[in-house]
Model the fold of this input.
Amino acid sequence: MTDHLDPAVAFANDRAHVFHSWSAQDLIAPKVITRAEGAWMWDGDGNRLLDFSSQLMNVNLGHQHPKLVAAIQEAAGRLCTIAPFHANADRSEAARLIAEVAPGDLSHVFFTNGGAEATENAIRMARIHTGRHKILAAHRSYHGSTHGSITLTGDPRRWGSEPAIPGVVRYFGPYLYRSAFHATSEAEECARAIEHLEQLLMFEGGHNVAAIIMEPVVGTNGILVPPDGYLAGVRALCDRHGIMFIADEVMAGFGRCGEWFSIDRWDVVPDLIAFAKGVNSGYVPLGGVIMSPAIRETFGQRVYPGGMTYSGHPLACASAVASINIFRDEGIVERSCRLGEDVIGPELEKIAARHPSVGEIRGLGCFWAVELVRNAETREMLVPYNAAGADAAPMAELANALKARHVWPFTHFNRLHITPPLVISEEDLRHGLAMVDEALEVADAHVTG
Ligand SMILES: Cc1ncc(COP(=O)(O)O)c(C=O)c1O
Done:
């Protein structure tokens, strides 16, 4: 009998039997990870790698946080599973705590297994609550890969699932560096992005629109921090037309941006929040929708037509409870904010000044993008939008240069994202950024102007 924990056996079984997401199966060679701790993980050859992506921007508390592991072990000893129609102490407490940290009067939580089911249910709630069908969703966005959530998604990952669900209308959000509105200042970008939404509502009929969904700080599609005033402007438009504001905080929430939810930075209260990832650092799959009392009331006497066998799973909810308590005890939200302001931002400024391939850096908390260009003047992207194969080679070279320096990166199109666990030590963070500084020479070699 073979030992399935042997890294070589794990790799062989993976190749023989595992079908991977978002991949051409023959073109990948997944790295075997045998253990992980804090911001570090170890591969099958015993190399120690700095996790500069928090996996998929979800391991906010780092790997194997002892209190989080203990909470799951303890909960498993008490009650491993119970159906969603029962009341359960871990679920009740998780919902109470999530409502407590949520903005404004948001009061009730519908639990899901992850982010896609969260956005999927948020639009279902908004549609039934308003009695309307249209949803406005942004270009340059990601909302999940189930059929509704992938329809909301504004990037090429949607294309393979089209034709998609009906009723989704696309808008441009603010992105001054590549402004869809030819704006030259944050204030102009903000005003024009709001005006664009206003026009869209005129053409679509605001009274037909159930919800506007957005990532308040856009994640995978660029870590796009909105200009001050934008989210308040969207809130005002929603109020004027009776539209639900859905904030997709799946990636940006739970401390990632140095706030409990990224939208808190602008003191705007949405009607619905989709969350997942950082709620429990993904130790057990969990997501959900936080809703306003008004939306809860819609389903007071009327059945909510949705649910999953594992909604509010006790192990997942116990880990969410432990996670929120750790956030509070260890000041994780403040820490994320401080690391962004004192370390990542200033270090990236210096890096940008040294490397001609860096077009722009932007971000907050532990959520940053380094946007790479061939030409700083024309802003030509280092690799084209959605590049693959040979076209994407410069970014693959950069990722490999970081891996060779034992830093595990997250890259997307022409960007390197800096998204470490929020518990990373300042020393490890500075080390990782120094490796980024070194590795960027690979990108500089492709600069043409
Ligand atoms: C903003 C956002 N929404 C939704 C999702 C989907 O979450 P999941 O992969 O848990 O389904 C993601 C995943 O990356 C995300 O970043």
Q: What stands out?
A: The CA atoms of residues 353 and 371 lie 13 Å apart. The chain has a mean pLDDT of 98.
